[in-house]
Design goal:
Elements (H helix, E strand, L loop, with lengths): L5 E6 L4 E7 L4 E5 L13 H6 L3 E5 L21 H14 L5 E6 L1 H12 L4 E7 L4 H6 L3 H6 L2 H5 L4 H8 L1 H5 L3 H4 L1 H11 L2 H14 L2 H11 L8 E6 L4 H5 L2 H5 L6 E6 L5 H4 L1 H12 L2
Parallel strand pairs: 3-4, 3-5, 5-6, 6-7, 7-8
Antiparallel strand pairs: 1-2, 2-4
InterPro entries: AB_hydrolase_1 (IPR000073), AB_hydrolase_fold (IPR029058), Epox_hydrolase-like (IPR000639)
GO molecular function, one term: hydrolase activity
Protein name: Alpha/beta hydrolase
């Protein structure tokens, strides 16, 4: 994976981020979701690098081979604001003051927070398979609670760690051929680490507490994304089925929004890398 990319562990303050970076040209950061690592982008990153981009692919704090502070009672160590601060510090340490930004799944919330808090650092942002956390919570239905029950299960203290730890492979599943053997092996290494599992669960606990509060404060203050936003969602996932057109929702949160569905299941970077890279480049090349 990532042939020609450098691999480093970069101290960003509270955490050390494991990061792959390569290519030349304007920088773009790719942020993964749960329970993936940066390796989920192994089919997309080379396509972007080939088209004249410097591509930076970190493991988010607590995920994969990145570290995280010990859990706190308020879960603030796993907040999207803390994770966004890591990414901003990483890019500055790599010499990039302004960059394009892509987030998928949980990584989308980090990308959203970074673009919201630091628009001066983000040229354009693409958010994949997400709407704001508070918009999810405002739309809770039996269907959402059934399909997305893990949001609320992961928020419980201690029990999820014990359940997942009993058999991580059975809990998370996955197909090495579909994911790519090295990507699958890297994710398997991560989910077999109790420290990583705890950190990933803390991400969800923060989501329903401190991250929700941050978004509620944004909404109360009528804050909106100032940078151009591309919203992409997987046609064979359930986001649109549960919530309708994501663009309608995001227009309440951003000044300049566009987007469309991609023919893929949820893990679009692994399942439809060419279509995803094409959509990102068309957006970023403007």
């Amino acid at each position: 994976m990532f042939e020609g990319f450098a691999v480093d562990d970069v101290d960003v303050g509270e955490a050390r981020l494991h990061v792959r970076h390569g290519g030349e040209g304007p920088p773009v950061v790719l942020l993964h979701g749960h329970p993936r690592t940066g390796a989920t982008w192994h089919r997309v990153a080379p396509l972007l690098a080939e088209r004249g981009r410097t591509v930076v692919v970190p493991d988010l704090r607590g995920y994969g081979r990145s570290t995280a502070p010990a859990p706190r009672p308020d879960h603030a160590q796993a907040s999207k604001r803390a994770m966004a601060g890591d990414v901003l510090a990483l890019m500055r340490r790599l010499g990039h003051d302004r960059f394009e930004l892509v987030g998928h799944d949980r990584g989308s919330y980090v990308a959203f927070r970074l673009a919201m808090d630091h628009p001066e650092a983000v040229r354009r942002v693409a958010l994949l398979d997400c709407i704001p956390i508070v918009e999810h919570l405002d739309r809770i239905t039996p269907e959402f609670a059934t399909e997305w029950y893990h949001w609320f299960f992961f928020a419980q203290p201690d029990t999820p760690e014990r359940v997942i730890g009993a058999d991580p492979d059975a809990w998370y599943g996955g197909d090495p051929e579909a994911m790519g053997a090295e990507n699958f092996a890297e994710r398997r290494e991560a989910i077999h680490s109790p420290e990583v599992v705890r950190a990933m669960l803390e991400d969800y606990r923060a989501g329903l507490t401190v991250d929700r509060a941050d978004e509620e404060a944004d909404r109360a203050a009528a804050r909106r994304l100032a940078v151009p936003l591309l919203v992409l969602w997987s046609q064979r996932d359930d986001l649109e089925q549960l919530f309708g057109d994501p663009l309608v929702i995001w227009r309440d949160w951003a000044c300049d929004v566009e987007g469309h569905a991609i023919d893929s299941g949820h893990h679009v970077a692994e399942e439809a890398p060419a279509a995803l890279a094409g959509a990102l480049l068309e957006f970023f090349d403007r």
